[in-house]
Here is the input.
Amino acid sequence: MAARIIGTGSALPERIVTNLELEAKLDTTDEWIRSRTGIEKRHIAVTETTTSMAVEAAEKALENAGMKGEALDLIIVGTISGDLCFPSTACQVQSALSAANAVAFDLNAACAGFLFGLAIADAYMKSGMAENALVIGAETLSKMMDWNDRSTCVLFGDGAGATVLKKDTAGMMSMVQGSDGQRGDALVCRNREVNNPFVQNGREIDYTKMDGQAVYRFAVRTVPRAITEALQKAETEADQVKYFLLHQANIRIIEAVAKKMNQPVEKFPTNLQECGNISAGSVPLLLDFINRQGKLTRGDKIVLAGFGGGLTWGAAVLTW
Ligand code: COA
Here is the structure.
C-alpha cells in the first residue's frame, strides 16, 4: 500500500510585484534578475497570511479530491514562515477545515518541507496510522526578507500548495531524503528578537541571508544524485517519467539538472517566472498548476524534488 495523491489545490496572494517594480526600489534590473534566475514577478502577501493561503489551498485540494475535512486523519504543513510560533499552521488549518479526526503538525525542512511531508504521510499509511492525509507547503517569505538586500529579496515569493493523499495500491513508489547540517550556514534566517533581561547582547531581529553560489553548487550536485537514487529504488528509467517537478528556485538550476539527467528540459515544467521561490510551497503549487491544466493522466510516472535550507533535500517517484 502507498499514499496516492488524489487532489491538489493552491493559493497565491493577489498583489503581484514585477521585476520592474523592484528596479524602481532597489539597485537591480529586470535583466539581471531574469538572466540569473528566470524570475519575472512574484506574488507578495499584503492581507494574506501563511494560514489563510494554506487553508485556501487545502479547501481547493479537498474539493478536487471530492473529500471532506472530517475524513482526514493527518494534516502536515511544511513551512518556515508560520504566522504564530504556536499553535502550528497545521492546527489552524485543521480548525478551519473542521477536520476534528486529524492529527496536525508543522514540519520545518525549508524548501524540502513538502517532500518530507509526503514521506511522513506515506509512512503513516504504510504503518496503518492513516488512511487520508493532507500535505501542504505554505509560506509568507516576504516577511523574512531584508527588502534592502538585492541579493535575496528579488528571489522569493509567497503562496501555498496542497495535496490530498489516500491509501491505495499505487502511489508513492520511492523516496530519497537527506540533510547536511554542517553546511547549514549557506542559507539562514534568525528572525527572533531576544529581549530576555538575563541574556547579554540580545539578538536583534534578523532576515534571510544566503551564500547563493554555495546553494547553487549544492543543488546542481545533490538533486540529480537524489533523483537517480529514487528512480533506481522505484526500478524506473528517467525516460519513463512524464514530468520532473523541481523546487522552483532558479531556472539555471533546473536546466543544469535536466542536462545531468540527460532529459529534455520540456519535461521540467516551471512556474518560477510568475511565482519566484516559495520554499515548501513551490513543488505542490507547481503540481496543482500542472494538474489543473489537465496534463496528468492516472498511471503517469512523476518525479518531485525539493532542496534548500538545512541543508535538506528530497526526491520522490510516484504513480499519478
Ligand atoms: N541585482 C543586481 N545585481 C545583483 C543582484 C541583484 N538583484 N544580486 C546580486 N547582485 C550582484 C552582486 O552584488 C555581485 O556584484 P559584484 O560582482 O559587484 O560583487 C554580482 O551581482 C554577482 O553576484 P553573485 O552572487 O556572484 O551572482 P550569481 O551569479 O551567483 O547569482 C544567484 C546569484 C543568487 C542568482 C545564484 O547564486 C543562485 O541562483 N544561487 C542559488 C540560490 C537559490 O536557488 N537559493 C534558494 C535555494 S532554496
Notes: The longest strand covers residues 158-168. The domain at 2-169 is CATH 3.40.47.10 (Peroxisomal Thiolase; Chain A, domain 1). The chain is about 35% helix and 25% strand.
